[in-house]
Specification:
Largest sheet: 6 strands, antiparallel
Strand content: 25-35%
Radius of gyration: 14 Å
Number of domains: 1
Structural class: alpha+beta
Number of strands: 6
Strand order of the largest sheet: 4-5-2-1-3-6
Helix content: 10-25%
Shape: globular
Distance between the termini: 39 Å
Order of helices and strands: EEHEHEEHEH
Number of helices: 4
Length: about 130
Amino acid sequence: MRLMGWYPLTQYGQGWPFAAREFRDRPDLEAGETYMSLILGNVDALAASVLVRTYFVKDAARRQTTVGNLRKEGFRVEYSPEDGHPLHVSVYAPGDGEWDGDAADRFSACFTDIQGAREEVASDDLT
């Protein structure tokens, strides 16, 4: 499937209300990761937690971007569905594919609209 520039992408994070520090900005190279995983679509924090963790996470958070925002910064964005995760998208570093500090900063700068699960659902529903 060809990803159009206007398609929204969601990244799952944890630790709301301090979620800005809890979003990954680079792959775990020591674990052999070569790309960042995102979710295709505009997904709220609770749904993102289920897609990524397979259960509700009450301190879940999410931030959003578009395919086009990442591509403008030189990232390669590919639809890459996985077993149990049909909305999976892989994002590879620009240029030679090295995830250095510059690539991490550019990746994070592409995101806006950070929200946490507690903003989406009444807090009584999360206990």
